[in-house]
């Protein structure tokens, strides 16, 4: 049975993305980098780059100080995290999944380094100026997001590269669906944290980023990424 016939099978609807038909968000025989834009990936990319442009434009429109590195690094981290999701979502064959996983891990590592650097900057700034820690909605959401990112990184790396920690490959693979859902939830937290930054004194007094603009960019990201989700990859979490 060829690929076209397989796509016509009723049971293959589980392989379809939430929006679109079978194959609309599947890598098929295309090169890995095509995954960045396949299907609604282009919508997610538009939102991701608009969000980054808003943050970076606001920062570079003002005098640069040490604190400026915080929004620059964290927005870069969000951008790389989104790329890490997009590159892996459409993979289909074993070879594609392996290539996608390694690239996914590499992009996440870059994002994690940027996020940690952003955290170091804000904590140093708070300590240096005697500022309060984790009081604003932005700070609280940021802390929760960092915890989620750390947990996702730990589980993602160990379940793929050291499955023996979970009692074998099969047990480790059984956790993949939770890792995927955790990744999507973490992305939502990241976007909420970015939007909440508009309510901080530094933004209202200096950056002046508009909440509506960041919300629009975030909605594009959610729609672009969410539409490519395949229920079959979420197991019983998708009602199977």
Largest beta-sheet characterization: none
User: Helix- and strand-based class?
Assistant: mainly alpha
The termini sit apart by 25 Å
Q: What is the global morphology?
A: globular
The level of helicity is: 55-70%
GO molecular function: metal ion binding; transmembrane monodehydroascorbate reductase activity
Subcellular location: Membrane
Cofactor: heme b
Keywords: Electron transport, Heme, Iron, Membrane, Metal-binding, Transmembrane, Transmembrane helix, Transport
Characteristic key phrases:
9 helices; 0% strand; disordered N terminus
Describe how the helices and strands are arranged:
Blueprint lengths: L2 H5 L33 H20 L8 H20 L5 H36 L7 H25 L7 H5 L2 H21 L4 H7 L3 H16 L14
Helix pairs in contact: 2-3, 2-9, 3-4, 3-7, 4-5, 5-7, 7-9
Report on the structure:
The protein has 240 residues and is an all-alpha fold. Helices cover 65% and strands 0% of the residues. Helix 3 packs antiparallel against helix 7. The chain starts with a helix and ends in a 14-residue tail after the last helix.
Quick structural gist:
The protein is mostly helical and about 240 residues long. It has helices at about 5, 40-60, 70-90, 95-130, 135-160, 170-175, 175-195, 200-205, 210-225. It has a domain at about 35-135 and about 195-240.
């Amino acid at each position: 049975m060829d690929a076209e016939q397989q796509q016509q099978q009723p049971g293959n609807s589980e392989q379809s993305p939430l929006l679109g038909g079978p194959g609309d968000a599947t890598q098929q025989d295309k090169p890995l980098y095509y995954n960045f834009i396949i299907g609604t990936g282009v919508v997610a990319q538009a939102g991701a780059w608009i969000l980054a442009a808003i943050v970076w434009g606001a920062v570079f429109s003002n005098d640069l100080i040490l604190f400026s590195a915080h929004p620059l690094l964290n927005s870069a981290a969000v951008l790389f995290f989104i790329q890490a999701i997009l590159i892996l979502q459409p993979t289909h064959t074993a070879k594609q999944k392996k290539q996608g996983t390694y690239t996914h891990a590499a992009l996440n590592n870059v994002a994690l380094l940027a996020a940690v650097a952003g955290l170091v900057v804000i904590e140093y700034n708070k300590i240096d100026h005697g500022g309060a820690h984790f009081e604003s909605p932005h700070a609280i959401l940021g802390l929760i997001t960092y915890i989620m990112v750390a947990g996702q990184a730990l589980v993602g790396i160990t379940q793929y590269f050291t499955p023996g920690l979970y009692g074998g490959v099969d047990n480790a693979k059984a956790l993949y669906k939770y890792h995927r859902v955790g990744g999507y939830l973490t992305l939502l937290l990241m976007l909420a944290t970015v939007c909440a930054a508009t309510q901080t004194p530094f933004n209202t007094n200096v950056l002046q980023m508009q909440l509506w603009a960041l919300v629009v960019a975030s909605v594009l990201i959610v729609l672009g990424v969410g539409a490519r989700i395949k229920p079959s990859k979420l197991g019983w979490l998708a009602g199977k």
